[in-house]
Write a structure and sequence with these properties.
Strand order of the largest sheet: 2-1-12-11-10
CATH superfamily: DD-peptidase/beta-lactamase superfamily
Helix content: 25-40%
Largest sheet: 5 strands, antiparallel
Order of helices and strands: HHHEEHEHHHHEEEEEEHHEEEEH
CATH class: Alpha Beta
Strand content: 15-25%
Distance between the termini: 36 Å
Number of strands: 13
Number of domains: 1
Radius of gyration: 22 Å
CATH topology: Beta-lactamase
Shape: globular
CATH architecture: 3-Layer(aba) Sandwich
């Protein structure tokens, strides 16, 4: 047992010792302006916090065409972080893409769905009380995944696309370092290869389109090991004094997430093969719910005291829980195993500024995974708020030759009626 433990430690240390991080002086200088004790603590030892930051500067020409320049801090795609709920973003885009490519008359993101089961552990889904129709749909899954990052919508989009297609489609778009291998259902490796049969319904309840369950026969390359921590709590709440093995977990480099978001925000800024096949109305829908607040939304009707406007806007998540009226953030966040991640496009409609900011941080002082003792509130969130302030402050002062026309991103958001007396949702799995 001792020899096995030592071997694991050697493999873990070896992977990290060869990592070559990328840091640009401009971003370092911006981060040095942060004054809080938390920021100084984190920036003093970026490897300890597995901190990675990408700041994307956007400049427009006289025709309002944007160009992009990435600046990095401690970035290396070989430094593992757990993407957690970040994977919901590409699956939402792939779901919209698949609907378009099925070419089925009457089939779209609003079409009612029902999920059956045909393999051990699979769970049917026949109704959805959070939707305006009472049925599941891709449109409502996207809302729930983006507004407060619910987990089951991710599972259902995973089942709709299929494990094999998810990876093949994203690899074809140039994201060949990533792998998405699992749902958030505690499934085994084999169970994750199977997906549920699905029926799309007409308004009268008859079947419009049926999709059989799928099975992925293609292997994944797990030759590179990702081991982290000094111990973890197993499913029986027993402490195992070995590093936690993330080798077969989902993995996407931070820069890939930045590019995935950029490809939908600014399709013409990336090569054609990297774009998602979205209709204009689908892209508009995705952007709306990437930036809409829970308090503005009627279906699902979330409790806006628990799920406040900055709930999934980490760079603006301060003690007020409010968002500045002149700012909108198009983003996706993730949190699990001590990791906090946010990939954002920020616009200030009043001051005419725009930029992208992507980062991940690991806060787990005791080195034990799965013990629910992470410093999210004392270190992680305060640091990300400081980071957001630093970049926003720099952007406010940055000289631009041409001010951006941001009218494309002036979205008409929903507005929850004050007469809506339905009970709000207070418990979710995210």
């Amino acid at each position: 047992m001792l020899k096995k433990f030592c071997l694991i430690i050697v493999v873990f240390i070896g992977l990290n010792s060869i990592a070559q991080t990328k840091t640009d002086s401009l971003l370092s200088q911006i981060l040095e302006q942060t004054k809080t004790a938390i920021s100084k603590q984190v920036l003093k030892d970026p490897p300890l916090y597995r901190l990675q930051v990408i700041y994307t500067q956007i400049n427009r020409d006289k025709k309002n065409i944007p160009s992009f320049k990435n600046y990095y801090f401690n970035y290396d795609p070989e430094i593992y972080y757990n993407p957690a709920s970040m994977v919901k973003m590409p699956l939402a885009f792939l779901s919209l893409e698949k609907l378009n490519e099925l070419h089925q008359p009457g089939l779209n993101k609003f079409t009612r769905m029902q999920y059956d089961s045909n393999f051990v552990g699979q769970k049917p889904l026949l109704t959805d009380s959070t939707s305006d129709t009472g049925y599941p749909s891709i449109s409502n899954f996207i809302k729930r995944a983006f507004l407060i990052s619910e987990n089951d919508p991710y599972n259902r989009m995973y089942q709709f696309i299929g494990q094999e297609a998810i990876n093949e489609k994203l690899h074809q778009k140039g994201y060949d370092r990533l792998r998405i291998t699992r749902q958030f259902m505690g499934y085994s490796e084999e169970q994750n290869r199977h997906t549920n049969p699905i029926r799309f319904l007409n308004s009268d309840g008859t079947t419009l389109f049926a999709q059989t369950g799928a099975y992925n026969t293609k292997p994944f390359d797990f030759s590179k090991h990702f081991l982290l921590g000094k111990g973890y709590m197993n499913k029986n709440d027993s402490l195992i004094n070995e590093p936690f093995d993330f080798t077969k977990h989902n993995y996407i480099p931070l820069e890939d997430f930045q590019q995935i978001l950029q490809s939908v925000l600014f399709p013409s800024s990336v090569p054609e093969k990297q774009r998602f096949n979205l209709q204009k109305e689908d892209r508009d829908y995705a952007l709306k719910y990437l930036s809409q607040y829970p308090s503005e939304t009627s279906y699902p009707k979330y409790n806006d005291s628990l799920f406040y406007d900055s709930y999934v806007k980490f760079y603006f998540q301060d003690s007020t829980h409010k968002m500045p009226s002149n700012i909108r953030v198009f983003n996706k966040v993730g949190w699990a195993y001590g990791f906090l991640t946010d990939v954002s496009y920020v616009i200030d409609l009043k001051n005419k500024i725009e930029y992208m900011l992507s980062s991940t941080i690991y806060v787990n002082q005791d080195g034990i995974l799965n013990d629910d003792k992470y410093e999210y509130e004392t270190v992680g969130h305060p640091f990300l708020n400081d980071l957001g302030k630093a970049i926003y402050g720099y952007e406010l002062k940055r000289t631009r030759k041409y001010r951006p026309d941001l009218s494309e991103f002036k979205i008409k958001y929903d507005k929850r009626s004050s007469s809506d007396v339905r009970a709000s949702i207070i418990e979710v799995d995210n």
